[in-house]
Amino acid sequence: MLSAGGWLFFHQTCMLLLGRLSVVRTLTASEKADAGILVVSFFFSVMVTVGASMILVDPDPAIMSDIIYGFSPRAQFMIAFSSGFFLWNLFADHSTVSKIMHHVSCIFVYTFALYPTFHLMALICLLWEGSTPLLSIRSMLILMKRNKTPLFGVVNTLFAVVFFVIRILVGVPSSVLWWIRVVPHVFGEPTGGGVPLHSHAVIYAYLGGNILLNGLNVWWMVAFLRRFFKSKKSVSGRDGAGEGSGITKKD
Questions:
Q1: How many domains would you assign to the chain?
Q2: Residue 251 lies in a domain
Q3: Where are the membrane-spanning stretches (predicted)?
Q4: Mean pLDDT of 117-136
Q5: Is the pLDDT of residue 166 over 70?
Q6: In angstroms, rounded to a whole number, what is the distance separating the alpha carbons of residues 158 and 221?
Q7: Which residue, among 40, 43, 51, 42, has the nearest Cα to 80 in the 3D structure?
């Protein structure tokens, strides 16, 4: 809750600072709120991507030796930092069903990781946020009606590439490998005194959350590609048509 309160305070501060910019004054109240959310998301994603990367480069031995209960103080901090963000984000930005599903899944994953559970996988999931800074910039350009500029084209392409590499090429295989290691380890162990060594309900929920988050990533990637090629086809059919492609700021 303390982390969520911190993100709420940061969002309100961003709103005050953005209100001083002439380009923001022309926006509607809801658009100004969206702009503030994008700024907060940008800073959050940069911080957790860098932080998670630094920990994974030099991980604590415990999280490498015990995939379920291995504890890392540094990972614990990053996870608490992130769980508060997604709790705030759920109330600040719930414009689509896919966003609600994403935020709720992340709240569950990172909150239960505080106990600790799956610190290593939580850090890997935080790496997926590496595509969010470009998404925030892209969405801000759309908000500012700059979606027909050369800059937007560059950002749009970079976002697609980074999203595909981080969330699909890295995210999906790492999740599959995690499944391969976790499922036998959890459900193949004998019980101690007739009591399961692990909470199967929590493990099932983690596995389900992992499927949901990967499914959302694949769905967003497919949606981006469909809009990208639709935009290209529209542009080739009539000069100046199309306003960009891919995941919009509301996806």
A1: 1
A2: no
A3: 36-56, 68-88, 100-128, 149-170, 203-225
A4: 93
A5: yes
A6: 13
A7: 51
Whether residue 165 lies inside any domain: the answer is yes
- Domain containing residue 129: 2-237
pLDDT at 207 over 70: yes
In a domain, 112, yes or no: yes
pLDDT tens column, 62-78: 999 888 888 999 999 99
**Residue 219 belongs to some domain of the structure:** yes
Specify whether the CB–CB gap between 119 and 22 falls below 8 A: no
> What is the distance between the alpha carbons of residues 216 and 209, in angstroms, rounded to a whole number?
10
SS (H, E, C) the chain: CHHHHHHHHHHHHHHHHHCCCHHHHCCCHHHHHHHHHHHHHHHHHHHHHHHHHHHHHCCCHHHHHCCCCCCCHHHHHHHHHHHHHHHHHHHHCCCCHHHHHHHHHHHHHHHHCCCCCCHHHHHHHHHHHHHHHHHHHHHHHHHCCCCCCHHHHHHHHHHHHHHHHHHHHHHHHHHHHHHHHHHHHHHCCCCECCECCCCHHHHHHHHHHHHHHHHHHHHHHHHHHHHHHHHHHHHHHCCCCCCCCCCCCCC
Q: How much of the chain exceeds pLDDT 70, in percent?
A: 86
